[in-house]
Amino acid sequence: MVTVADIRAVALTLPRTTEHLIRDRVKFRVGQIVYAALSRDETVLGFGYPREEREALVASDPVKFAFPSQSDMRFQWVHASMAELDVEEMTELVIGAWTLCVPKKVIRAHLGEDFV
Question: Does the pTM of the predicted model rise above 0.90?
Answer without folding.
Answer: yes
